[in-house]
Structures are given as C-alpha cells and as structure tokens.
Design a protein that fits this description.
heterodimer; A: alpha/beta; 6-stranded mixed β-sheet; 5-stranded mixed β-sheet; 21 strands; 9% strand; globular; B: mainly alpha; disordered C terminus
Amino acid sequence: MESVTMSSYNDTQRMELRGLIRLSSEVIAQYWPMRTFVHHNPLHSLEYLPFDETVKRGLRLLGGNGYLSGDLYRGYVRSGRIRLGHLDKALKPLVRDWHVTLGGRRVSHGDVLRACLTHGLCASVEEPLDALMEWPDIEALASHLATTVTYPALGERAVRAVGEDQAALGHTLTLSNWCDRALGTGIVDQVNGELIKWCEAFLDEGHAAWPMPMRDRDLYGAWKSLARYEWSPCGIADSREKIAQLPDHPEDAVLDSLAILAIPDTLRQDYLSLQLAALPGWAGFIKWRAEERDYAWQRAHPVGLVKFLAIRLWYVRELVQKACRASLGIDGNYGAVLSYMQNHSREYFLRRERVAGRLPATYAEQVDRLCYGASGGAGATRAPLDGWSILADRYQEEFGPRLKDAMRRTTARRLRALAQALEVAPSVLVKTPLSDLKVLVEWMEAFPESDHGPVWLKAFEAGYQEQLLDSLVRATSTTQPADPKSVPSPRPQSQSVFCIDVRSEPFRRHLESTGANETYGFAGFFAVFIRYRAWGKEHDTEQFPVIMRAKNEVREIPRSYREYVASKHESRVKLVHAGHTLLHDLKENVVTPYVMVESLGWFYSLPIVGKTILPVLYRRWTAWLQRLFVPALSTCLTVDKLMPADIEEAVADEQRALVWKALHERLGLHGSRIEPEFVEALRRRAMNGEGAVEPTLLELARQAGLPAEKLDAFVDVLRRHYHIDRRWASAQKERITRTGFTLEEQVLTVDTALRMMGLTRNFARLVLFCAHGSTSENNPFESALDCGACGGNEGQPNARVLAGMANKPQVRAWLAKKGIEIPADTHFLAGQVDTTTDETRLLDLEDVPATHAGDVARLREHLREAGRRTSLERCVRLPDVAATLAPDRAAVRVHARSTDWSQVRPEWGLSGNAAFIIGRRELTKTLNLDGRVFLHSYDYREDPTERLLEVLMTAPQVVAQWINMEHYFSVVDNEVYGGGSKVYHNVVGRVGIMSGPWSDLRLGLAWQTMMNGDVPYHEPMRLLTIIEAPRARIERLITRHEALRHYYHHEWVHLIALDPVDGGWYRYLPSGTWSPVAPAQV
Amino acid sequence: MTDGSLIALLVAVPFAGAAAGFALWSRPQALKAWALLVAFANFAGLVAIAEGASGSGTVPLFLPLFPLVAFLSLLGQPAHPDNRSAWLLTLVLLGLGHGALFGGEGVGLALLALLLGLVGAMLYRYRSVSGTAPWWGIGTYGLGTICAIVALIAVPPVSSVAFLVSCAILLPLVPFHGGYVAAFRGLPGNLPAFLALLLPGLGFYELRTLIPGLSGPAVWTVTILAIAGMLYGMLKALVQSRVRLILAYAGLSFLSILWWYIAVTRTAPPQAVVYLTSVGLVTSGFLLAWYAIQARYGDLDLRAIRGVAYLMPRFSILVFLMALAAIGLPPFGVYSGFMGLLLTPALPLSGALVVIIGTMLAACWYFLGLTQQLLFGPHRPDLRYEDLCFTEAAALVMIVVLLMALGIVPPRFLESSKPMSQAQSKEFLAWNR
C-alpha cells in the first residue's frame, strides 16, 4: 500500500479520540492479574443496559452466548429441574390467543411455543442438498408442502446478503472480518497473533527469562522500535519503512489508520469496540493497568488502550489493503468494500458461500478457480464478471430446485417433530390443510432459538427461587423477631464471624450443630480496609474489595521477644531465596541448562515422584524440612499508628543508619572511628544545609579523616545514593503515617463491624473472626478460591487486625460510650478456615488470656468437628467421590485433593452460588442451603437510619453480584467468557492464563470449576437478593443509588424483601414497584 | 467340477447377478441385499479356489479381497435409489476383474480392455453437470483400453509397451494417473471405494508377469516416473481441500513407492502384496467413511465440516484408526508392508529413499490434517449430526480388522504371490526379442 503520510492532529482531536476509546472499551471488562483473581461481571461496563440487551451486545461484539444452549435447558426439563408450569409462566408475555386445528386437536400458540422450547424445534438446522439417507415419511410430507414452501433465487439471496453485510460493516463486522468471510483470508487471526506476541512480551511481570528490551518506552514506542527489525511481519511488504514513518503519538497513528480505512465518524466507536473485543483478555488487562497508575509495572512500562489500538489498527489497515488489492483489485477501505458488495453482489455471495463451506464441492472448486483468476495467479487476468454470472446462473439452475427440496424437507422435519411434541400422529400432517401448516411454521419461525434464552432463564430461576422461598417462609413462620433488649438470651459458648462466602454456610451450620455456638456472616474483610505487607515480603496486598480504596497500611512484624529467631528466620529465608534465584538463573541461562540438566536434573525426580505418588506425605515432608531450616516465626501486626514525634524519630533513626552505612562503604570507616555526633551532623547537613558548613561538622570530619574539600561531595553522595534528603524523608513519613490506625479509626472500625453484623450484645467469652483461604497445588487460579472481599487474598490479616482492635481496653471503653458493652471476659480471636481442607487455624493465640484456655480448646474441638462434617457434605458433591464416606475418610480425601498437583478441581469454590440473604441468622438457621447462599448478618433494628443497609447493598451485594455474574457467564459460554479447560492452561507473564502456547488471556473461570462432565455444576442464574428490612428503607436506597437501580430495574439482580412491618414477602419488579410473592411460592 | 469351469462360473456369477438385479430395480433395499449376496457368494467361491490352488501360483491369496471389498463397499451404502446403478456396476466390474485375472492371455486382456473402457464410459456418464467433464481421466482409460487391445493383437515390443501402459493406468503411475484420480473424483456411490483396490490390484497382478522381462531403459523410465509420482502425489495431496482428491493423490504417491520398488528390485514379494492391499484397503476405508459424510450432507468441501468427534464417535474412532493405518503405524498392514519393502535385502541404498521417507512424512501431515480438520474444532450448528448406522460401521470395522490382519499375518500365507520366473512369463511380453 501507499506509504502513510504523517498527519498532524491537534490536542483536541487526540483528546476526543481518547474519549472515544474510553467509550469503546465499555464492552470489555478490566482483567485483574491472576495473583489477585477478582470475580467480576465480564460485561460489567454495560450494566446500565437491561440484562438481555447486554447479552445481545456481548454476542454481537464478543461472540459470546448469554444463555445456556437449548439442549442443556431441555435436559433440565427432562430431569424436572425446570417445571413446565414455570416455563408456561415465563412464556406468558409472548403467547397470543391464536389456535389451529391439527388432527382434530385444537393447538394453541402457547402449545407451539412450548413445544419449540422443549423439543428444540427452532434450531437452525438445514437439510443437506444431496443427502442419500432416506426418510420416507419426511419425503411424503415435504411433497405435501410443495406449494407452500418457497426458496428465494440466488440473486435475491445475494441481494439480501449484501444488504445484511452492508448494514453490519462497521457495526458488528470489521473490515478484517469481512475479508476473512469473503476472501477466505485469516487477517483477524494474523493480527491477533501479532498483538498477542507483543502484549505477552511487553506486559510480562517477571516471568520471562529474557525480558523484552525497550520497555521503558511505552507499548507503542517499544513496538515501533522493535517491529521494524522483523522481516515482513504477516507478509506486509516494506514494513520497516512503513513503521518508521508512523507518527510518534499513538493517537495520531489511530487517527491515521481510521482515516485510511475510511471508517465514518458515526461508526468509529463501534469499530474500535470490535477491535478491542477481538482480544478481550489482553485489552482488558491493559484497561486495568491503565487505570492503576500507581501500579509498579505500569509506572515502569506504561501501557494503554490507545497504544494497543495504534498497533492493532496498523496491522489491520495494511493487511486489509493487501487482501483487497490482491483479491479484488480495490482499496481496502470501508467505501470501496461497500461499493464492491453493491456492484458485484453475486460474486460476493458466491465467494462468501464458498468460504463458509456452504457450496457443493464442485462449485467450490469453480469459485476457487475464478478467485485464482481474479487474484492474477499464474499470469491469469481478473476473471470477467461474466464468469461469476455464468457460475451463479448455473448454480441456480442446478441447485435451485434442490435447495427448494431441502427447504421443504427441513420444514417437513420440523412439522413432524412438532406433531410428535404435541402428541399428534405425524400422519395427520399430510391431511392437514396447507394454510394451517403454514400458520404453524410461521409461529415457529417467529420464535427463533435466539429468543429462547430469556424464557428459559426465567423458568430456570423460578424453580430455584420458589424452592428457596418456600423453605424460608416455612422457617420464618415459627420465628417471630422478639425484642432482643427485653428477653435476655443465654450466653453462647462462642460466637464466630465468617465471611459471607457461600462456602461458609455449611461450615456455620455444622459449627452451630456441635454446641452452643453462634455464627454470623460478614464480608470477609471485616470492614478493615488495609494494604498489608507480610513479614519478609516485598509487595503489599490489598485486603479489601476492589471497588473500594484503603488509606491504612498494616505490616506483619516479629513479636519483640522473638528477635533472635527473627534474624535467624530472615537469614535463612534469604538463603532459600538465593538458592531459588540460582536455580532459576541456571535453568533460564543460555548455556547452563545443558550442564544443569545433566548434573542436577536427577534431583528433580524427587519432587516429581513425591508429588505424584505420595502427595500428602511429600507435602508433610517438605513442610517439616522447611520448619527445620527456616524456623517458624511468631508475628504481630502494626495495628496502632505512631504519634508524629515517634514518626519523626523513626525516620531520623533510619537515616542515621544509612549515614553509618555510607561512611563504612564509601570512606572505609569502622565503628570505633564513627562518632554519633558526626553521623548526626552529616544527616542534618544532608537534610538542611546548603550554606556554609558548620565548624563543628568540619572539626568532626577532620577527626574522622574526611578532608573539608571532600565533605560537600560526600554529603551529595548521601543525598543522591542514600536518599537522605527532605523529599525522601517526607515520603517516608507519609508511608509511616499510613501505617496502622488511630484510636478513633479503630473504634469506628470495630463499631461499624459489630453493628453491621448485629453483634452488639450478649457477647460470648470467645468471639472468633474467621477469615478464609485455600490450599491447592499447581493451580494458577488459586486466588480465585481465596476471599473475594479481600481482593482475592486470604483474609487472615483483616481478622487479626479486627481482633487486635476489639481486644483493646481503650477501644472497648469508647464502644461502651456508643452503647456496645463488651464484657471484660470476652476475648476476640482471629482464625482462618481452609476451604479446601475445612481445617481451621486459630491465630495470635499468644494473646489469649490463660483464663480462656478451656474455651479455646473447646472451640478448637468444635471447629475440627464442623470441618469433618463439612468435608463429608462437600465430598458428596464432588464428581469423582462416588461412595458415601465416613467423616474421617472425607477429611483425608479433601486433604489429598489439596495436595494433588494433577487435581483440576481441588474444591468447587463458589460454584453453585445463587442467592444473597441479608438478615438475621434466625431466618436461615434451621435450613440446609447447600452452600449456595451468601449470608450476611444484619439486624434492621440496629439500623434505624439505614446507613448499614446502604453499605451492605452497595458493597457486599456488589461483590456477590460480581461473583455471581462471573460464574454465570463462565458457564453459559466458557469459551468466550470463561477460562476454557485447565488441561490446556499456561501461565503467561505472571498475569494470566493462555490456552495452549498462544491465545488471548482467558477471561473467567475454568471449565472444570463450572462443569460436572457435560452438565453445569454451577446453575447459571442471576443473583437473588433477599433482604429482611422495611420496604420503605430499601426503596429509599434504590432511589439514592443508580447502581442499585441498574441491578433491579435492568434485571441483573432479583430482589425480594421480607418486610418486618407486616411480615410479608415482596418481590421488587423492574418497573420499580413491589408485588407480593405469589401464594404458590409461599 | 474342474478349476477352469469353476473359475468361469465365478466370472459369470457377478454378470448374472448384475443382470438379475434389474428385476429388483424398483426395490432399492432388495437390490442392495441381492448385490451383497452375489458379492459374498463370489468371495466364498474365490476362497474355495484359493484354498485348492494354494501353492500353484495361479490365484494369489489377496484376490479374494476383491469380492470382499465389493461386499464391504456395498454394505455401507444407504438404500437410496440414486445408488442402484453403482451397485450393479460394482458386480459388473467385479466380473470383469475376475475375467481379466483368470481369462488367460486372450480373453483376459479383452476383458481388461472392456473394464478400462467401462470405467472411462462411467466417468463420462457421471460427469458433473456443472463442472467440466473429466476428459483427462476419460482419455486415460481410453488409452488404457487401446493399449490392452494393442497388447492383445500386436507383437513385441509394441505389445509389451502397451501392456506396461495398461498396468500404469491400473496401478497408477505418473503421467497415467489421470484415470485413477478421475475415478475417485467423479464416480458415484461405492464405486470409488471398490475401484481403489480393484484397479491397483489388477495392475499389480498383471505387472507381475512383466517384471522379469523389463529392459534396462524401461526400468530406468519406470524408476524416474515412480519417483516423480511420489513427489507429485505428495505435493498434490498436501494442497487439496476435497477428501476424494486427497485420497487419490495419496494413493498415487503410495503406489508410486511400489512401482519404484518393483522397478528397482524386479521382484514382487509378499511384502509388496501386503503393502498394495493395505494401501488399497485404507483408501477404500477412507472413501467409504467420507461417503458416509456425503450421504448425510452432500458433496462437501473438507473445510465445510468439522467437529464431528463428539457428535459422531463411531465414525471418528474408525476414521482415526484408518488414519493411523495410513500413516504407517503398527499393527496395520501399511506399516508391515512398507517396512517389509524397505528391509528387503535386495533393496539397494538410493537417494530415492529420501523421497520415500518424505512421502511417508507428508502422508502423516495430510492424513492427520484431514483427521484433525474433520474431527475437531467447533461443529457446525446448522448441520444435523448422525453417527454411522450399523451397516456403515460394520463395513468400516471390517476394513480396520483386515488392515490389522494384514499387519500381523505371517508372510508364508502370502507366498503364492511370488513373481513369476523368467520362464513363466508370457512370451509376448519379452522385451528383448
């Protein structure tokens, strides 16, 4: 193609483009790195649209189905999971009062629609032209239909196809897609391949042995610098010159490409959306990174969607141009392509049919021959239009009647299936008037398979909702809320607060059954918004829902009486780390692997054999070795914030240590010659001094052997290399200031948490804040099993912080003033349950008073028993555990799964989630909810201002909805919205997963997490939120929050309220009104 | 009954069967059953003759496979009226084939000429309405007919050359492969699957009589053409998107290996029979499998169907097994035949071995590519997938079993197919007179 001339655009145009790209990127969701897997709705940005509309847009742009296939829904009908009554109810809005008579039976419109659903009559299956398999009854009926069924001539079909494609071009069809469809090219795959290659290399976060060079420039800059060294990428001629001529601004490159492709302004947003949607994984990750400006990798290697599109569109424009020129002799732009379709409709149609594989082989060959002529192959000239016309005429002549026959057979087969579904003898069809048969066919055609999804989903959800509501109503009919202040309850043995995670439900149920243990549900971050750094780690984790932000930091530090062990621990950890680094370098170096494989390769057989044959034993053994070499460390958390003076002193101390180190390293001074006064004077000089040097400092320097003329140079070194200056000190202070909580913050945190969970009186002697984590081997999705409310991390730091705060006498004193009297003998304890093994670990036991040893022992025993029972319950649901197990065997089994590195399903995780109940535990205490319900404790009586309910509906409910939608979409189309099979997964760049060696980043959850064989384990339904609170309060909150309106009015979430005012159950309708839940459901 | 009259009877049975079949023309199911019965009776008769004549060298043991393959190819056919003529022609071709084998010098060659002419005529009759007629194929069979007649009436060396050309048309050799390819491409029903074994089998059988007397230039020419055939067939098979053409060119490249071997060693040991039969059976099997697809969805381009592995498991397993056989993996006959050829002590080290290895590697590429394309990937939602019915599956299973049997059969069972000695070769085929 012609070389691109440099275009100049002004800042306004660039800004407009950035805005346009921001809008275009709505269709793709952010992609969080896999180490903090965040469940989210892959169509989150489109939640302002109704659910069905969003699903359609997802299908149009991403190609993803929004509903299960009809076959799976029909399977649910056969199994009784979907009841016909629910199906009829869901169909009701579509049914008209029409009837026909078939074999003496009156068949209604509703009967036909239902048969379409239950018997799959509307699937777009076509009869082949030349099939030799004979079905005599079908042939007879097909003959009967001869006069009613028509099939358009080729010319008419061509015009229709051109019309459809002209309308789609730019909206749902890119020029590259068009070339692929019409010319049989593979431009989309080629461009995707290039973008995957560059994104994979540029976005690497330490995984690659040889990182991509020039990443200090942004993605576009690095690509420009490196791509020019490639020899003809994708067969683009003169690529080096063309890339060199590209503008420096990526915005300009995008605008240039759009201009060359001649995309009209009105289509640009859709067009860019389609380009992003071609690789939603990588584009989503870039979108996330671009929004995380403080992210270390983003600061080091900036990337954004504009840059991504600048590269992508360059490949697109070059390849489209090349394909259109070579095959059609036209320019590769929007206008030229439209014009070609308009003027060569029959040629275009034949080409498209050939690429789609819909032409008989003999015609496919002839189309190929004409295409070859058109492309100028082997000295041929462009095929004359006559060639295409003759071929089209011949095709129409030869296959027109056969196509009509095939159409008749298709209709006959469909009618026959309808008759069978309606339990009418198919033989009556040939005796039925053609007009009636035509009506039946029209009804079926007016209800295509693509319209079935919403109906199926409603019926599917109705079944579960009815069953859940029935059980809730039965349970609550005997439990009337009593005034908690008037009737004191007996003091429980313990109170445990678990995450709202659906996996907590069975554990809580079993813990309650082991003794007088009360349980509560609360978002797993326990209202503690912290950035947390574990001891010995270099990076913080964000321990809060991703929709929030934190201003406090907490660090894990060794307990002061364990200083000796700490230093030993630290040095051993360093040794282990150095060993790992050495091994890694040996493996990844250019030369050493050859030697290493020979010399050390055999040692790797030990872990391979151990992990494969004796995984449990191997894990125990390695854990023992680790404890032996790196002694366990007792730690605490920096919950309290330092006073300003303390901060000042801490920074100064750190600076003095650095000065000392500098004197030693730079001047070779040793301890005895370094006077503290000299160190302090140097520090002050580095921090403040610009003028004349103080005589005292000169004198001290002279004593230390540092000549006066070198003093300033040394101070400069302190500033430059040891960061002893005002700016760094200020940053240090700010960092330390963020560490910990003030007393007021601690009181607020504990008060909020306790009130939200409804735990404000009748405290037990032991209150456990139980976080959760998981253990699995060889599982890149490990963090998906951790706590979603803690940003995909384990929640134990949050539990420890909250327990630490709640145990403080000052905090308790403040809480007492606020009306929460915590008895002196109540101790708050932190713990963490492993959702894979159901084992609970209690933390910070050093802080438990000796008086509570018995309580702790009892609680521990109850937790162990609850874990065993939970394991037993979970084992029943696992697909490969067929037999009923004893509790001990179940515990062994789940433990073995957690250590098995070939296990693709260490646990079901959050699969199965379906509902979210915000209310008192009394509502659900007697129910077995099968681990499918998020349970958040909430007592409306403690929340007269609905402030707490507001938080619950706008935070935990959002998290639950994200989790629910992640699971929903991962099931309905695992290839597009899910992660595909784990069998093919490869970790890339430490950021995500690819299928095989080369793919887009996989978006959602893996096939094995969702499916039990071919049947979904997770039943894809939208979240049902049930709130025990007065409707008026809920309505006020919905009015106040747009996000909630989107949820309920656009049918992303179903809402039902148990109104304590009249004790009734009400469903919130998309119209914004309440409807009493039908008596059948109660 | 004498052997001669028994043979005459066996030749006559298929003709009679075909003629009687017209009586059942209006009942496709009955006609198919009748054709199956005739083919089976013919098979049983040939087995009996082979048993009686084993060791005499008159009836190679692999020849009963002709009626057996005819039977299997008929077995998998849907009882559709469009297939009736193909069934009857199968019987006619079977009779002609037997006649060419057992008819002796004069009658045999005449029937061979008739057979070649009939195949050419069929190509013309079944030419595509839309496409160009397969003139190259028709011409090739026309040439074959003429050559057979010339071999019958002319004197050496003209008769010898003509006979060699006939053989090169039956057992395809570049540039006489056009008929073989056209037969695969254009004939209806089970005919391609049947001819995939019948034509090369006849060609090989006739060629055996020529081997001892081949002159130096003839050997040199055949060697060059065989190598060219391997390369040409391999490259053509790699670029095809129609299954029948892939199979035709694959067959050409595989059978060119046999030509090369025969030319270089001037022998046709049992391993060559195993190889030839296995290649024929694999090709037949694939053609039958593809015919099952055609019966359901029409004559499709390979790119138009995919993802059948999950929805048509029986079909997929059998196709996959045949692909394994085709690429020369044990325990199938192609493997043992091919290895048997290569390990023959008489085989000299030659640069052609590189081409042979390349041919096999290319076969791995396109056969596995074909299988991958057909079995895997997303299926087409607008097609109604139906797995093989019992008879279709049975036919393919038996072919796979035969392939395995050929892979493990001890060579002594095939000893009777040794080449004739110089003295045994027909007088009119002498090159150097």
